[in-house]
Amino acid sequence: MANQAFSELVHIPDGPAIIEGMLEVPENAQGIVLFAHGSGSSRLSPRNNYVAKVLRQAGIGTLLMDLLTAEEDKTYAMRFDIALLTRRLTVATAWLQQDLRVKGLPIGYFGASTGAAAALQAAAKIGAAISAVVSRGGRPDMAGAVALREVGAPTLLLVGGEDDVVIGLNQSAYDVINCQKELSIIPGATHLFEEPGTLEEVARQATAWFDRHFKAQG
Q1: What is the pTM of this model?
Q2: Nearest alpha-carbon partner for 136 in 56, 29, 49, 15
Q3: Topology of the domain comprising 6-217
Q4: pLDDT tens column, 82-115
């Protein structure tokens, strides 16, 4: 358990590339969640930052990071390179596991849009070291059936009730996932959860999911 609260800008190397992120850990944190953003978004995403703030208020640390460098993000196709996004997430996870301030804390993933596919692929690769996964308006289908079947971390898929196409894609992925899982439809929400109260509901359900499964690791 990380006893001291801290917040710092971090730089995580992956070969010649440097991943930049903001690591914020509250006092006596019970776990830490890495955020994988969707295509065209960044660690400055107001929606993910809102969810991260709610998590920290509940005693959960957060690492919001850009899985692509600014140069890489200029190439549209790279935003959909799930293999690259997955590698960056696994590299960040390994880096975090070596930080003595948070070493040993349960780790979770929060993925949005294409970031959800990377989160699930990374969870499948890393295995038992990942305690929980949450997807917000995600594309878990892009993780592929092989990875989805190999995910062992309890997985919560959150989808807007008005996000028709993505509901179907999440249902298909949900049917393939073998571990503890839940598909939650947020009534009245579109893809970006911009409607009043919908993002708050995402944050509430995500916090409850991480809290439950982090405590199960204790």
Answers
A1: 0.95
A2: 49
A3: Rossmann fold (3.40.50)
A4: 999 999 999 999 999 999 999 999 999 999 988 9
In terms of Cβ atoms closer than 10 Å to its own Cβ (0-12, 13-18, 19+), residue 20 is middle
SS3 annotation, the chain: CECCCEEEEEEEEECCEEEEEEEEECCCECCEEEEECCCCCCCCCHHHHHHHHHHHHCCCEEEEECCCCHHHHCCHHHHHCHHHHHHHHHHHHHHHHCCCCCCCCCEEEEEECHHHHHHHHHHHHHHHHEEEEEEECCCHHHHCHHHHHHCCCCEEEEEECCCHHHHHHHHHHHHHCCCCEEEEEECCCCCCCCCCCHHHHHHHHHHHHHHHHHHHHC
Residue type, 50: Y
Strand order in the sheet with 6-14: 6-14, 17-25, 61-65, 32-36, 107-112, 130-136, 155-160, 181-186
Residue 42 φ/ψ, nearest 5 degrees = -155, 180
Place of tokens 């917040």: 7
Closest by CA to 21, choosing from 48, 1, 3, is 48
Q: What is the pLDDT of residues 114-137, one digit of tens each?
A: 899 999 999 999 999 999 999 999
- Domain boundaries along the sequence of the chain: 6-217
